[in-house]
């Protein structure tokens, strides 16, 4: 039987939704490994809409489920319908939508709240001892919900290659252990069954980001 993996999206586009390359890489690697992806998103308004040419917010209003459906080619389900019993694992790609639509990390950092619906899903997989894969910024969700967990967002020292390294420091303040890693690597927290990879937290060639996501997907499936 193919393993069934829920992929949770947060919109469409790096600045206000799911990072498209990361989401695509997750789906490609799941397919390559013979797993069945089931794509979900919350049926909620986006925090805001960003013009990805100008990098500036616009007056538009969009829905997270409707926008995520673009990545899923329309084959998507409302997060409210997710039943952990029929699934083997959960993977959450990154993108600012995680920090804006699934949580308030973008505006509140370590003092953020996680969407009740998203938190309930994460807790359900964790309680069922089913693995959770996290890309890029999405490990902050685990850091907020599971104190003492181990995750990676790459490195904790800011430089040209690691422009978002301060995220690691904020996560440490939440009581989690941050593990430095390379972009092609995934870190496994065996106790909490969490697998994380830095993806575009690193200023790296896209093929290296793709390879790191492949490492994460394979570890998630190994644990499933």
UniProtKB/TrEMBL annotation:
The lineage of its organism: Eukaryota, Metazoa, Chordata, Craniata, Vertebrata. CDD domains: GATase1_ES1. It comes from Cardinalis cardinalis. Coiled coil: none annotated. This is GAL3B protein. The gene is Gatd3b.
